[in-house]
Specification:
Helices cover about 45% and strands about 15% of the residues. The chain has about 375 residues and is of the alpha/beta class. A seven-stranded parallel β-sheet has the order 3-2-1-4-5-6-7, with helices on both faces. The longest helix is centred in the first third of the chain and has 19 residues. The two termini are about 15 Å apart.
């Protein structure tokens, strides 16, 4: 089977890309030949990995997305693929992986957070109008035969917002490499990792991993950290964001800058999971944060936002907690509770991830691809 994966910029630090990277060996063992169609493919790898680079000239994000959509459709039409799975909102694909959720849902949340001027800006922004229209056109396109939803939350949002037959909506949760992310690594990696971060023996370290700090709720985590009043609480932040300096200033304004460490993007986050005592991601909207699943697989209890696919696999009080990012005091209380209870929750955290192994996810994808290919064979 020849499968084209469409991702505008393949970023090895991104959650979607890490899912693809971990699933590829299992897909290849099942006889799936995967070709990436992208503007840039840094981190995709060499050898037998196939890539079609399409990088048309653009000015601005609207033209960037529209020009890539046209070039990608042209590339996959000429490629003779059995299936085309797009991770971007491009009408005409066979399969859409809704890893970014529903754009209009995120816009509704942003409008609720913005002031009057911000809401006017969102309403007038042509880029958001383009994305919403591309999303609508893609779901209405008869060539779309399946939508991969990585949480029930996403499936229900799509079903409510678009006229898509429910039988096209398939929930396939993200998978995690259960051997690559394993609690046994904590014993060997923990001390050197904490030393490298400058974390003291008595400090309780929360770990935030994710790019796009505003959506992921970093400001909520910083506000809650300040509300705890606990000098032994520290926060490490791994991820990239062009507004990092603004969040660093916020940490200073809240009086917690000394206890916050901005680490940038990390190719291997396992030492950070080993160094941490609790994972925290009070995201405002996230279809399924893969980092939360990785943390749980490492035996790290997790605090996650309620509007998140990860909330579907966290057992409150057993493997972690579910928070409201808008409630800084409530989140601070959960952080204090984590300091008391997290050390005894490592086994439950690991157990909550064991049903979401990479082979399970790859098997479900292959079964879906095979069913789609069989239905298209005369």
């Amino acid at each position: 089977m020849r499968l084209a994966l469409v991702r505008q910029r393949y970023n090895p630090y991104g959650g979607a890309e890490r899912i693809v990277e971990r699933a590829l060996p299992a897909l290849e063992r099942a006889g799936v030949e995967v070709t990436l169609i992208a503007r840039s493919a840094a981190g995709w790898g060499g050898g037998a990995r196939r890539v079609l680079t399409v990088d048309p000239f653009y000015i601005g994000n609207l033209w960037r997305d529209a020009s890539f959509a046209r070039a990608a459709r042209k590339a996959w039409s000429a490629g003779g693929f059995d299936l085309v799975q797009s991770h971007e909102r491009i009408p005409g694909c066979t399969v859409y992986r809704a890893g970014d959720g529903v754009h209009r849902s995120w816009l509704a949340i942003r409008r609720g957070l913005a002031g009057p001027v911000g809401r006017i800006g969102l309403a007038l922004n042509p880029y958001h109008r383009y994305v919403c229209e591309a999303e609508r056109a893609m779901f209405a396109d008869p060539r779309l035969r399946a939508v991969i939803c990585n949480s029930n939350m996403v499936r229900e949002e799509i079903a409510a917002a678009f006229d898509v037959a429910r039988e096209k909506l398939h929930v396939i949760y993200n998978g995690v490499d259960l051997q690559h992310f394993h609690p046994r690594m904590r014993a060997s990696l923990r001390e050197p990792a904490r030393a490298a971060l400058g974390v003291g023996e008595r400090e309780f370290l929360f770990l935030f991993v994710g790019s796009g700090f505003a959506r992921k709720g970093l400001d909520a985590a910083l506000a809650a950290l300040a509300r705890t009043g606990r000098e032994e609480f520290a926060l490490a932040i791994a991820g990239r964001d062009r507004h990092e300096r603004r969040f660093a200033r916020l940490a200073g304004e809240l009086g917690v800058a000394r206890r916050v460490r901005f680490l940038g993007g990390r190719e291997d986050v396992r030492p950070l999971y080993a160094a941490a005592d609790c994972f925290i991601l009070p995201t405002r909207y996230d279809p399924f944060p893969n980092t939360a699943l990785e943390a749980l697989a490492m035996g790290l209890p997790a605090i996650v936002g309620a509007r998140s696919g990860a909330a579907e696999i966290v057992a409150p009080g057993r493997s972690g907690w579910i928070c409201d990012p808008a409630d800084a005091q409530g989140l601070a209380a959960l952080m204090a509770r984590a300091a008391r209870e997290a050390p005894g929750m490592q086994a439950a955290a690991r157990a909550s991830a064991e049903n979401y192994g990479m082979d399970r996810m790859a098997s479900e994808l292959v079964s879906l691809y095979a069913a789609l290919a069989a239905r298209s064979t005369p």
